[in-house]
Specification:
The protein is of the alpha/beta class. It has 18 helices and eight strands.
């Protein structure tokens, strides 16, 4: 057996020496054959994404899709605000026109909790639906994914599929029902991913479920729906897209992530940066840099809002397979430990730090911290943002300054868009940092994808640096 292993190792090393070593290819293979054989780090990545349909007015086709599927009892999920707005009306009109039998669940909570998830799951179980339609932002789509999962796997305990270490992180083995996602915000990209995020109230942190099996069957991206978004919702949703793109592009490369799964079904949805996710992340970053400011400042700018809707899906494809890292890992306690802050333009009856805001406020500190590990990628991201936002060329910038340039560009961008001046503006102080760090530590699913490992002391320093931005 040992002799056979040595022969395989020798052969793979020969192939490695004979393979292309140009910069465009060698970095995806350069972690070394020994790692792939030993199983210490992964050696492969997978791409999983929902089918996507895009076009103005394309929502009218949803009823036909369900008819084509042979759907007999459909669950339509949304929230109480959206239930009165044109996107939901467009979906219901399509269902009625095509003779689809449906029931509406409109009790989705903005920034869902384990309690709100359980309520939706109970509705889904009682309804015995054969298909689902989610109409809304990430909260609605994530809630619908989760309801579909547990209604399709009634023997599962709620924590069975929740990410470890908070949950058991068990693989999903059930066959889920078809789910059509109709996003109304340009932010989460949830219509493309196998991820559902929620607040776990007992620990006051966000966590989630991550499995390729829960991704929607179809994402129907109708840019007309984004015209309903208020200014701050547009801004905070866009910041989520921005950080999805930046974090997935700068995440630990897939071939450095450990452990290597013993079975491909155990390969995580968030695998680390890879050549395919890189394409989507960089393209999304270009669109955000070019159009987000316009989309926020002029709700009638259909070109800008339509492009941001596409950017959300593009970034979703990128991070849905590569993953995110510290901005998101640190954002979960920022949202979960909220005190009295209530974001403008969000019609909710509870304190709320919108997800995109909680993510972006730490971005200058985070990318200053991570830049030394992959400065070329940080500088490339900075060059894109500077070119589209400031109209400047920084191609002559020094690679060692990549983190500071990207951080300064982000601060300027956020200042121009009237973003709250750091965590202190949300009601946090240095006294809250230990709790914020404690809430970040369980987020290993994403924090371990940071290109730079971090200690508790370093996390404390990052939160400290994020108290004020300007």
């Amino acid at each position: 057996m040992a002799g056979g292993r040595e022969r395989v190792t020798h052969l793979l090393k020969q192939l490695h020496r004979a393979s292309c070593v140009c910069p465009a290819h060698s970095h995806t293979y350069s972690q070394g054959i020994e790692h792939a054989i030993s199983g210490k780090t992964d050696y492969a990545f997978e791409m999983a994404v929902s089918n996507i349909r895009y076009g103005k007015g394309v929502t009218k086709e949803v009823g036909m899709d369900l008819q084509n599927m042979g759907a007999r009892k459909v669950c339509v999920m949304t929230d109480k605000n959206l239930s009165q707005l044109p996107p939901v009306k467009a979906v219901l009109d399509s269902l009625i026109t095509n003779g689809i039998n449906f029931q509406i669940y409109d009790s989705v909570r903005v920034e869902p909790t384990d309690e709100s998830f359980r309520d939706a799951i109970e509705f889904a179980k009682k309804g015995e639906f054969d298909s689902y339609v989610a109409v809304g932002g990430g909260s609605v789509i994530d809630t619908c994914k989760t309801a579909n999962l547990y209604a399709s796997s009634p023997e599962s305990d709620f924590l069975d599929h929740v990410n470890a270490p908070i949950g058991k992180g068990k693989p999903v083995r059930a066959t889920l029902k078809p789910l059509i996602a109709v996003p109304t915000t340009a932010g989460t990209g949830s219509e493309t991913t196998g991820v559902a995020i929620f607040d776990y109230k007992e620990l006051k942190v966000k966590t989630g479920i991550a499995s390729r099996t829960i991704k929607p069957s179809l994402g129907v991206i109708d840019p007309l729906h984004t015209l309903c978004m208020p200014e701050r919702v547009t801004a905070n949703s866009g910041f989520d897209v921005l950080c999805h793109a930046l974090e997935s592009y700068t995440a630990l490369p897939y071939h450095q992530r450990s452990p290597c799964p013993s079975n491909p079904m155990n390969r995580p949805a968030y695998q680390g940066s890879n050549p395919i996710s890189d394409v989507w992340a960089i393209h999304a970053l270009r669109i955000v840099s070019k159009y987000l400011k316009r989309a926020i400042r002029d709700p009638e700018d259909q070109e800008a809002r339509a492009n941001m809707h596409l950017a959300s899906a593009f970034a979703g494809i990128g991070f849905g397979n590569a993953g995110v890292h510290l901005c998101h890992g640190m954002s979960y306690p920022i949202s979960g430990l909220v005190k009295k802050y209530k974001a403008k333009d969000y019609n909710v009856d509870h304190s709320l730090v919108p997800h995109g805001l909680s993510v972006v406020l730490t971005s200058p500190a985070v990318f200053t911290f991570t830049a030394p590990m992959c400065p070329e990628r940080h500088l490339e991201a900075a060059q894109i943002m500077v070119f589209f936002i400031l109209g400047a060329d920084i191609s002559s910038a020094k690679i060692k300054d990549a983190g500071l340039i990207l951080a300064d560009t982000l601060r300027k961008f956020l200042f121009e868009l009237n973003v709250d001046d750091g965590l202190a503006a949300l009601g946090y102080s240095t006294a809250d940092i230990p709790a914020l760090v404690k809430g970040t530590l369980p987020q290993e699913r994403v924090t371990k994808l940071s290109p730079r490992p971090q200690t508790e002391e370093e996390l404390s320093a990052l939160f400290e640096s994020s108290m004020k931005l300007y």
